[in-house]
Each structure stands twice: as structure tokens, then as C-alpha cells.
Amino acid sequence: MNDLEQRLHYPLGDALPESGRCIEVASGVKWIRMALPFALNHINLWLLRDEIDGVAGWSVVDTCIHRDEAKAQWEEVFTHELEGLPILRVIATHMHPDHIGLAHWLCQRWNAPLWISGLDYQVARLACLAPTSFGGARTAAFFAQHGLHDAETQSKLLNRRDYFTTLVPSVPDDYHRLLDGQTLRIGAHAWRCISGYGHAPEHMALYCEGLNVLIGGDMMLPRISTNVSVYESEPEADALALFLGSIDKFRSLPASTLVLPAHGKPFTGLHERIQQLHDHHRAHLDKVLEACRQQPSSAADIIPVLFTRAMDFHQTTFALGEAVAHLHALWHAGQLQRTRGADGVLRFAATPG
After folding, report:
1. Which pTM does this prediction carry?
2. Using one digit for the tens of pLDDT, what is the confidence trace for 259-290?
3. Phi, psi of 297 (to 5 degrees)
4. Any idea where the domains of the chain sit in the sequence?
5. d(Cα 270, Cα 27) in Å, to the nearest integer?
6. Per-position b or e across 120-148, b if 16+ CB within 10 A of its CB
7. CATH code given to domain 3-134+161-288
8. Which residues make Cβ contacts (< 8 Å) with residue 79, sequence separation at least 6?
């Protein structure tokens, strides 16, 4: 455990749910942990005791990716953890594959509706229908203009045509829209939606005052910093400013709030973690600004400034998006200026004065 983690508290210690089983973390709130075949090797999912139209059951928050192993784990959960009750609705905090990948299957399996923000639903639906699915010529061109124009990377991007649909083959044909500030009655408790930006189009965290529990999704993680990226669909976005502004919404919650993150272990120390994330990104921004003072830099040049570890292609795509996000934060703040070279690459230099 590093120094930053030591400033947080993990009420359950090192306890983790076994495959296909749950741990109850609060009254009527169960924790499921499912494996992912990535460097980030797990996701946390949640069962909330519910009742809709007089029918007792459960709401599911997040789903895991479309994967036979995940389906098998869900079947074990159905057998051992539902107490003979049905799934009544499926809630997705956002549209990233590990959160929505099995929503279509769960909704069909239980004849349950999907609840998600409107923007994330539409982006997920478009991604399922798009022929390139977060790859292809537009993605390759975006990476090239930010300095990743080597032949191998460009070839992989051009041929990445089914990345999203492999993990999210479809989404339900209709949905219930989650709105910022909306209150959901889930069983005996009221849960308030808190929107977040910078990581996903319109992420929704859920806070229950009665339980003093925050389902933070990917907006509030205890061990790692959430990926904050700029994409070709919104090429001049200031994603980092949006993210930092979003997590500040959680400052109004009690310091004693039990945070249920999408990755890592449930923790308390919410206000401390918010400050840690601000400090982390401030330190990264200082490094980026110093690099751009030394010489005009593309996002590809900034990747090793932000990330010292070796990365595979999948991780590099996230790192490029993060590098652009940090450059854009400084650019939008007037601390960097941007030029396009004869090679078509965008480079950023410190603003004079």
C-alpha cells in the first residue's frame, strides 16, 4: 500500500468477494467482483435490494464486458445471491464496455429495463452501429496529428474495427434516462444521481444519504487515477477541467461517506481522495508545462513525461488521450500555444511572458 492509500481507510480490510458470490457492504447493498482480461483485471458491480410496482427484487449497477466467463459468474450470482428474487432493473453508470457490456443480456434475461444517462446511451448505441467502432481512418488521423504516426500504430488503428462491439455487441432498444440531481427510489432508500464529465460522456454516480454510501463508478477510484482522455469525436475538448470540476461535486458529501468504486476496494476518505486527485493532475500539468518550455511537444512526446512504464498498444491509446487532455488543459488556460507543423503534427509550446 502506497503513502496515498494509507491516508484512506478500507472498512472491509483485504476482504474480496469470491467468484460468483457477494459481500454485503451496507444494508441491502451487495458487492460483486468480476475478472477482466486487461491490465485492469477486475470490475466491481453492485446489487441493490429493490421493489418496483409491489414486486421485490434487485437492481444491478454495472454489468462487466460481454464475455462467457462473466455470464457464468452472473449465473452463480443468480443462484446464490438473489435470495430467490428477480433482477428488476439494470443501471449503468456509463457506457464504457466493462460497465455496459452485458446490459443487453441482463435486460433480456430478466425482462428488466436499462437506466443510464441519455448521452451515454446514445454514444453506446452509435458505437454498436458504427462500422469502425472506435477505430478506422478518423481515429488513425487523430493519432497521427498528435504525433503517433508510425506505420505499426497506424496500421493497428486502421484495422481496429470491432473493438467496442466485441465487448458490447448491443444495447437495449430503449432505456430510462438518468439526470443530474434526479432521485431514484431503490427499495427502502433514495439515491441521488450526480453527473460527471471528462471520463465518459455523462457519467452518473449514485449517492444514498440514508446509507451514507456513494457508488462512484469510475469517477472516484482509491488506488489509480481515472483515465481522462480527448477523442477524435470532440478533438478540442478540455476533458481534464471537466473531470476535476466533476469530482469537486463530491466535496459536499460527508467525509465519512463509504465510497464504492468500480475498481479497487470500498473506502472512506472521500475528501482526502478528491484532493489527492487534484494534486496528482497538478503535478502532471507542471511536468507537461516544463516539457513544453524546453521544446514544442506533441502529445506523443508527452506520453513518456506522464508514463514511465512500458505499455502495450491498448494502453498506449489511453495514454495518448491522457496526454492530449493535459496539453489541452494548459492550452485552454492560456499557458500553452499550439501550432501545426509542416508534417501535420500539432505541437504545444509555453506561452511567452
Report:
1. 0.96
2. 999 999 999 999 999 999 999 999 999 999 99
3. -130, 140
4. 3-134+161-288
5. 20
6. bbbbbbebbeeebbbbbeebbbbbbbbbb
7. 3.60.15.10
8. 20
